[in-house]
Design goal:
2 helices
Length: about 90
């Protein structure tokens, strides 16, 4: 089973693409290392304060996959420099 989450976020303190990429790099690297998920910026690569992040996990257990994605979302929420606006979770 493949579970994906598409997360629209705002990075209010970013004043340049370099600052935005710094925040995203720190978050995506830690997500990959701590939760063993695939992570990528999906949209708004050219905007300073807005992004859409995609997270994907594969599991044979539906409950485990949902738990993992929820933990990853909570982890994103723990960063004060990024605000999660809208999240779409989908089974593939």
């Amino acid at each position: 089973m493949i579970l994906s989450a598409e997360i629209e976020c705002f990075i209010y303190d970013a004043q340049s693409l370099k600052e935005k990429r710094s925040v995203l790099k720190r978050i995506t690297t830690r997500l990959q290392n701590e939760f063993n998920v695939a992570v990528s910026e999906l949209e708004h690569q050219d905007l300073w304060q807005r992004t859409v992040i995609g997270i994907v996990t594969i599991s044979s257990d539906r409950v485990q996959a949902e738990r993992l994605i929820q933990q990853a979302l909570s982890f994103i929420d723990s960063f004060p420099e990024i605000e999660r606006a809208e999240t779409t979770i989908e089974w593939c």
